[in-house]
Structure formats: structure tokens, C-alpha cells
Design a protein that fits this description.
- The complex is a heterodimer.
- In chain A, about 0% of the residues lie in helices and about 65% in strands.
- By secondary structure, chain A is an all-beta fold.
- In chain B, a hairpin with a 2-residue loop joins strand 5 and strand 6.
- Classes of the chains: A mainly beta, B mainly beta.
- Chains A and B meet through strand 4, strand 5, strand 9 and strand 10 of A and strand 5, strand 9 and strand 10 of B.
Chain lengths: ~120, ~120
Amino acid sequence: KQEVTQIPAALSVPEGENLVLNCSFTDSAIYNLQWFRQDPGKGLTSLLLIQSSQREQTSGRLNASLDKSSGRSTLYIAASQPGDSATYLCAVEYGDSGGSNYKLTFGKGTLLTVNP
Amino acid sequence: DAGVTQSPTHLIKTRGQQVTLRCSPKSGHDTVSWYQQALGQGPQFIFQYYEEEERQRGNFPDRFSGHQFPNYSSELNVNALLLGDSALYLCASSFGSSGFTDTQYFGPGTRLTVL
């Protein structure tokens, strides 16, 4: 069964800290992995997309890595700010020799609180 | 440039009723996916439409059906509503391709409450 797990479920840090969010997935046959941000009651904002052939992607203070062999991805947030407080979701697009299955399989998310 | 839009924002229905949710994709996108997100959970894939055809379907019963129009907008229909259908319904659009899904852009969602 293709599953995505995120640890921890919740994280609280003081402003200015660097932090790492973890995502693990079963089955290494992935096409890509995305990290999303979701504010309470809102839709999802795509932060970073890593293709299966890539090892990492960076955008501003965010850096996402992908290790297919170990089934892990991390989202690194540098110099956290209160505005970073949100739920962060990891999503994997799986596939097989015939191609992608076209759907995103999500983890349950990590609720991040950055305290001023 | 308008992003993905969804209507209505909120909806309250009673058990057994039917509901239709609507989605307009981001300009230039031709693929629409629907997800159900229960409280405290990650989104669950319902189905994806590409070129007006259902291209992939998740583990949802036939009560959940959809449609894509020639202008690429889409509808999600749910029949015989159950209490467990209460959730945030998210629409995502992307530029269609064969073989994999490009970055998906999500709408704000429709909050459905079934009483």
C-alpha cells in the first residue's frame, strides 16, 4: 500500500530557529514529491516540487530534499518567522512502468507554530 | 491572472440530499483534480479529469461523480449524502500531460457540512 507519513504531527519553535519537517513514503517508484502549506480552513499553496530525478529544490528560506532509496524527504525552513505558522503537507505522486498514476497521496501534515 | 476558483464557499445539506460543487481552473490549465479533506487529515484523491474524461479515480464510491466542460471547468456531484461526507472539498488544476502530473494549484475549497 502506498502511504505517506509525516513526523512530527505538531511542532512549536521560537522565532528565528531553523527547523526540519520530515516525510516518509512507502514504495520508491515515485514521479515527484511536493510540499504544500495550508493555512487554517484554506486551500493548499505549493511550496516546492521535486522531480524523482532531483535531489533537492530551494526557494528562499525553504529547502526540500528527496532520497528515494530511503523513502524520505525533508523540508528545511531557515530563520523561521511567525508568518510561517501553518500546516505543512507532503504529497507524493506514484507511478509504475506504465506511467504516473496522476494522483497525489498526502500525509496528514505537520502543524507548525512559530512563537514571536 | 485568476487562480483556481471554487463555489460555493460553504454549504450545509442534510443526509440523503445531493450536492454539486464547482471549480474553474487557473488560466491555461486543462486538468482538474478533486480531493476530499476531512478535519485533521490530509486530502484524499477523488478523481482527475483531463480532456473531458475521467483519467484516474481514487477509492470513492459511485455516489461521487464528476464532469469536465469544454472550457475545462469542472463539477463534483455527490448523491445520497452521508454524515461522513462532511469535509473540505478541494479542487486542483494543472497543465495536462501524459505520464505525470505537473505542479497542481489548489483552490480555496468548499466546506460541506452534512447534518
